TrEMBL record:
Residues 202-442 form the Peptidase S55 domain. Gene3D superfamilies: 2.30.42.10. This is Stage IV sporulation protein B. It holds the Pfam family Peptidase_S55. It comes from Dethiobacter alkaliphilus AHT 1.
Length: 450
């Protein structure tokens, strides 16, 4: 009996220890702390770990950060986790923190970057987007009627939809017309073409034997290719001092392959909105715009990725509508659920303000284009568009006097709702934070009419 009682006591003690660890061990230090945390100089950021335990923390830089009012140093100091941890930016710079339980057990490492307050001018402008890809994109195959029947030589050679053709026989491709010109220049028999393609970031070589088409009398390889794309989107922000901008908030993909377009060159121009197809359940709707080559909006496109398109302006002349004043950039930790507004165009070039609600904010440990869920609440915008429509991507989101994000996606089954991206991810991609010197909005050195 005594032995059975001892075993029962041991089992209960074991489960009691597990319960203690589950409730007291600071598990949230992994969940609630990002690998890289960004805060503004002079501002505070709170993280609630909610554990009765304490940890020891030290950093590799002094004068940058304080925790609960105590400056971080290379000497480990004790930190209670009962109350929320207060991160306070004391000076510009970066500090690597190390958290240890009981001063011995490693718990967590993270980097805290203290940034200067960044002011940007919100956009809302409708822009025409013209992109040329690096190489030519394979968008499909077709059959060639040859002597031995119908076939697609490129397909048989293993060239796939979504591949990017970089060169043929060593000749670098600048546009789609070159493909037909190179193939037409020589015969077909026993003389395969050497294709250099890019697939999933890797270069691959393929040999393709052209077939003499009985219908046209010309050598053909059975491929559909494209080298450019165009569409309408919305400018999110710009910085007059660096001339840099960010737009869209999501990557531009090819309509047929759904693959991101690798940019060789591109530009943005002014777009005049002439029609809107209203969104409805199962159909996202879209803006229709006319591209206008003018000095009102002119710029290049140097980057197309998950967070939008980015480049530099040569000129920007603000149209009628809202007054464009610089606003401070909000960090992810400063975005909250509740009322907000967006800037966008629904007719012509006039930028208007519309009410929305931020319904959910996701804590992202790494950059992504779906950081918040938003809902259109403005009846005027709902009457005009039915909700979020194509061409509205990039519309800046403003909350509490700060630029917090941009509209990126629509919920197809509920077009009044969609996703937004945090503005800090877009600003990081724009290169603005890499520029040296004071970025406060002062004198302009290129054409901007406020």
């Amino acid at each position: 009996m005594k032995s059975r009682y001892s075993r029962t006591k041991l089992v209960l003690g074991f489960f009691g220890l597990l319960l203690l660890l589950a409730t007291a061990f600071p598990w949230r230090i992994w969940v609630n702390l990002q690998n890289d945390l960004r805060i503004l100089e002079g501002e505070k950021h709170y993280v609630n770990i909610a554990s009765p335990l304490s940890v020891h923390v030290k950093g590799d830089q002094e004068g940058v950060l304080s925790l609960n009012g105590s400056p971080v140093s290379s000497e480990a100091s004790k930190l209670s986790l009962r109350s929320p941890i207060s991160f306070s930016g004391q000076g510009l710079g970066s500090v690597n923190l190390e958290f240890r339980l009981f001063g011995v057990i490693p718990l967590r490492q993270l980097t805290v970057n203290v940034l200067p307050e960044q002011k940007l001018i919100p956009g809302g402008h409708s822009i025409g987007i013209k992109l040329h890809s690096d190489g030519v994109l394979v968008v499909g195959h077709h059959l060639v009627n040859g002597e031995n029947g119908s076939t697609s030589p490129a397909n048989e050679a293993g060239i796939e939809k979504g591949d990017v053709i970089l060169a043929i026989d060593g000749t670098k491709l600048e546009d789609a017309n070159q493909v037909a010109e190179i193939i037409a220049r020589r015969g077909t028999a026993g003389n395969p073409f050497q294709f250099t393609i890019k697939r999933d970031g890797q270069k691959v070589e393929k040999e393709v034997d052209a077939v003499l088409c009985r219908d046209t009398g010309r050598p053909r390889i059975g491929l559909y290719v494209r080298d450019s794309a165009a569409g309408v989107g919305t400018l999110t922000f710009y910085c007059p001092q660096t001339k840099r901008y960010g737009a869209l908030g999501h990557v531009i993909t090819d309509v047929d392959t759904n693959q991101p377009i690798e940019v060789k060159d591109g530009r943005i121009v002014n777009a005049n909105i002439v029609d809107i197809k209203q969104a409805r359940r199962g159909y996202p709707g879209e803006k229709t715009g006319i591209f206008q080559e003018s000095k009102d909006i002119a710029g290049n496109i140097t980057k197309n990725n998950t967070f939008g398109i980015f480049g530099s302006f040569t000129s920007l002349n603000n149209p009628s509508g809202v007054e464009h004043q610089p606003l401070p950039m909000a960090l992810m930790s400063q975005v909250e659920t509740g009322p907000a507004e967006i800037l966008t165009v629904v007719e012509g070039q006039e930028i208007e303000r519309f009410d929305i609600e931020i319904q959910r904010v996701y804590t992202q440990s790494r950059p992504g284009d779906k950081g918040m869920v938003i809902r259109i609440t403005d009846e005027r915008l709902l009457d005009a568009t039915g909700g979020i429509v194509q061409g509205m991507s990039g519309s800046p989101i403003i909350q509490n006097g700060r630029l917090v994000g941009a509209v990126t996606h629509v919920f197809v089954n509920d077009p009044t709702r969609g996703y937004g991206i945090f503005i800090e991810w877009m600003v990081m991609e724009s290169g603005i934070l890499d520029e040296q010197g004071d970025l406060s909005t002062t004198a302009l050195d290129f054409e901007i009419a406020m």
